[in-house]
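Here is a protein:
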Amino acid sequence: MQILIVDDHLLFAESLRLLLLGTLDADGSVRCANSGAAALEAARQLAPELVLLDWNLGSEPSQEALIEALKTELPEARLVVVSGEAHAEVVRRAIDAGAAGFVPKESTPALLIGALRLIADGGIYLPPQLLRTGAAPSAPTAPGAPERALRSLAEAYPALTPRQQEIVALLVRGLSNKAIARQLDISDGTVKQHLHPVFRALGVANRTEVVYLLAREGVRFS
């Protein structure tokens, strides 16, 4: 796995880089960038499969814009916000922008690695306190806790058609309706026509609620 860390706190970025090298199968390919411009340049050179992005980069006026630019550059990558701000509004903004997960910086190393393993395996990680509606958290909550088994979307929601499942998988990766349409060679209108029955079937009102629900349900996207 090739990983890009985007954080303007150099000590944190280097510590995280060493932690990942020691615990994840990164093959030595963990790069750090301290600005949006450096992140985009590194993305072009490295083509990482996983991007860990701080929400507050001092040089960036809009993290949403940077996330969108990285998703355009790396449509297949899993982009995860790792931030000291884990308020519900910030998490929702990150997911709305296209992030596939959100990990608070205050997490223990064991929890951080557990969350990243889950995301790398196709799952979605969000802070457990935002998901507690009677279901188990989407990743270990303490060192040594067993990892949660993931299910495919078809297993979790068999009523969805194969095309609807394709669209949900792309939506969870943070692609816009236009990007989904390009990926599947269909029109924007067709994407919207599929999303309405998807929202009804899942019992949600919008794209962000889809991500929250599937994180809570432990759905995996390979």
